[in-house]
Amino acid sequence: MRIVLISGIVFVHVPFDPQTSPFFGANGFIDWVRVFLGDSLFRVGVPCLSAISGYLMFRRGLDAFDYGKTLRSKARTVLLPFLIWNLSFLALVLVAQKGGIGFGYLPDALNASPRDLATLAFAIEGLPINVPLYFLRDLLLCILLSPVLGILIKRYPLVVLSLFFAYAVLPVPSGIFLKKSILFGFSFGIYVSLHQIDIRALDRHAALISALFLAVTILLATALYYTGPDYPVWIDMLRSLTAIGGIIGSWALSAILIRSRLAERLSRSEGLSFFIFCAHYPLLIAFWMIWNRSAHPGLYPLFYFATPVLALLILVALHKGARHLVPGLHAVLTGSRAGRSRAVEKHAPDKGAHQKGWSDTYSPKEKATR
Fold first, then answer.
1. How is 8-53 classified by DSSP, letter by letter?
2. Is 228 exposed, middle or buried (0-12, 13-18, 19+ CB in 10 A)?
3. What residue ranges do the domains of the chain occupy?
4. Of 309, 313, 357, 332, which is closest to residue 14 (Cα–Cα)?
5. Nearest 5°: phi and psi at 26?
6. Tens-place pLDDT, residues 9-44
7. Which of 200, 212, 197, 199 is nearest to 246 (CA)?
8. Contact 47, 247 (CB under 8 A)
9. Does residue 117 carry a pLDDT above 50?
10. What is the rounded distance in angstroms from the CA atom of residue 181 to the CA atom of residue 248?
11. What are the beta bridge partners of residue 77?
């Protein structure tokens, strides 16, 4: 699920400017497809990834949850990669802007106030310079709050989830979170884990759920296309609601996709998904800067559909090269996820892994090691 969701997130972050906005309808159906992919279907990625994180964190139960150990682990697997990827990109932007390159494509980091520069570096009050990494920032907040969230969701699951659902969907201030759906997604994952909800029971209805989910995203995309870019409040609420509903919809789709041989191979590439997530935005911006130097705005659909594919191909190659040539650096950049990927390759699950689940795929000794 992670590699599919993150590949979809690449489409969400393809740059455009007012001249090439899909809401002008200059390209008809192609612009609707852009809205469907970037503002509807693949917007489910963030809450889904949050739910996966919450589920895995409490998969051994509340009593076995070790807060100190979790903080130490997440400092290595989430905080350190966030700092390395974001600060490296910020340094690159500062060097480029000092040479007169990059203005208008990225925030003016060179002339930013100390407060704004701190936000670009650490996402204190807003988006980081490497925009998609806001997810890691909000995930770290959820991790810090995880003991409280675990206790509350264990004792008062419906009340807590209802409050977080309202917080995510209603037009209320976001507070300390940059993306409100992350808190709900993370908490929903905790709920499924602590209350041992058998989400595999949905698999027998996967086709129906997937069809309904796709129908909803199509309808949402149509509403967004005709009302954007300044959506009415109720449309924005529908978008948030659809993204949250995508947690169930994506699981149903994964039940279908996992049956293919390609999906089996992708399921063993956890380090790759994280690498793509952290590295794709700077690459897309570089492509956008190159494109604007030579291309006509009327050719933008070519850029939109070709750039994510090209970026994914390049990042897959870079990931593979780094993994073999500089494994130590690769381990740091991927938050030590490559080791887990190799463990999965060694003990690869069969085609029924989606139905059997994590607990049934590995022996007790393997579980303890992982």
1. HHHHHT----GGG-GGG-TTTHHHHHHHIIIIIGGGGHHHHHHHHH
2. middle
3. 2-369
4. 309
5. -65, -25
6. 999 999 998 888 999 878 889 999 999 999 999 999
7. 212
8. yes
9. yes
10. 14
11. none
